[in-house]
Every structure is written in C-alpha cells, then in structure tokens.
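Colleagues,

For the teaching module next term, I've prepared a clean inverse folding example: a structure given as tokens, and then the sequence designed for it. I'd like students to try predicting residues themselves before seeing the answer, so please don't circulate the second half yet.
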C-alpha cells in the first residue's frame, strides 16, 4: 500500500504548521475510512428498512391467507382465487425485498472487512455491482430505498476510484462481475428458502399454478 493511500486511509497528526495543515485540508479529500464507515451506516439503515417492509408483507400475507381459507371452506372459489393471486403478488414482493436485504447484508459485511484490511478496490468493485442490481430490483417496490441505494452506489464508486488512483491498483472486471453474481445468487437462494418456509402453501384446487408463475416473474 503506497504512502499516499495510507494518508488517505486514516487522518494522522503531524508537526506541520497551522498554515500547512490548512492547505492540506483544502487540497486533500477527507480520509477514506470515515467515509466508508458512513456508507456502512447508510447501508445498515436500508437493511432495517427492508426488514420492516418484509414484516409488513408477512402481516399482509397472514391476513390474505386467512381470507383465502375462509372463502375456500365456504366453496367460494371466485374469491379464493382472487386472494390466491393477491398472495402471489405479496410473496413476489417479499422475495424481492428479502433478496435485497440479504445481498445488502453481504455488501455491508464486506465493507466492514475493508476497514480492517484496507483491500478497498477489490472489495468495492463487486459491492457496487450488487448495489446496482438490487437498486434495479427495488424499482416500484420501495422507491425511497431505490433512491438511497443509488446514492450510496455513487458514493462507493467515487471512493473506489480515489483509492485506486492512490494505491495504483486496477480492477479485474471479470472477477468483479463473477463475485457480484455469486453474492446475488446466494442471496436469491436463501430468500427463496425463507419465503417457502415462512409462508403456508395454498389450499389444493385453486389456481395455484397461475399464482406461483406470477410470483416468479
């Protein structure tokens, strides 16, 4: 790690005069580590927001499922199918938010590791790729989260470019895309397992095939 990058990583006290310190403050960007810590805080806030959204989806699923069972026991197939399709849409949103939450958790953990080892360029590349994918998935689901994630992604991109110029490191985009894809795939697998485990199956005889196919689009 170059001396230039080390100075950017954490601020240090030295014996420079007040004038030299002032000049350095004007010319230099703020240290990288505090800005990475700020990015982690912002990410964790979005993770909490997604947790809250998932809780709301779970409550809505429970209410709709109760109505579905009631209609089903009364042989009201028309209303039962309506509730089944509404459930499918709720579970689709739940998959998306849970997938995003798990992916963001991985990004947050990796950035926290950066604060320990300083491997900033190679870590932020995949993290930014994951953020962009999650950001697209949140379109129409949680617009406020979508906007904030886009802002965090821009912030991390700037930090990565600054760190790269200071350390002389360059990205291997093949490895970056592969690593980001692995994070997203793992999150999607776990999200599917949790949704299937948390939500009860639809009663037999309904348009479950149509509802399920809709939930996976």
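(Answer key — instructors only)
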């Amino acid at each position: 790690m170059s001396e230039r990058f080390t100075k950017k990583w954490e601020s240090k006290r030295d014996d420079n005069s007040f004038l030299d310190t002032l000049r350095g403050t004007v010319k230099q960007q703020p240290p990288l580590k505090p800005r990475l810590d700020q990015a982690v805080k912002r990410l964790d806030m979005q993770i909490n927001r997604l947790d809250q959204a998932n809780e709301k989806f779970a409550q809505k699923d429970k209410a709709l499922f109760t109505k579905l069972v009631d209609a089903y026991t009364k042989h009201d197939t028309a209303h039962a199918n309506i509730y089944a399709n509404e459930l499918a849409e709720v579970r689709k949103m739940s998959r998306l938010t849970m997938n995003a939450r798990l992916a963001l958790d991985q990004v947050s953990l990796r950035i926290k590791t950066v604060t320990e080892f300083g491997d900033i360029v190679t870590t932020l590349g995949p993290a930014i790729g994951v953020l962009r994918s999650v950001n697209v998935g949140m379109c129409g689901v949680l617009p406020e989260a979508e906007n904030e994630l886009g802002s965090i992604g821009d912030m991390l991109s700037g930090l990565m470019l600054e760190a790269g110029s200071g350390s002389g490191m360059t990205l291997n985009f093949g490895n970056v895309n592969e690593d980001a894809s692995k994070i997203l795939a793992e999150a999607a697998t776990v999200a599917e397992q949790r949704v299937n485990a948390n939500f009860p199956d639809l009663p037999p005889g309904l348009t479950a095939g149509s509802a399920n196919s809709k939930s996976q689009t």
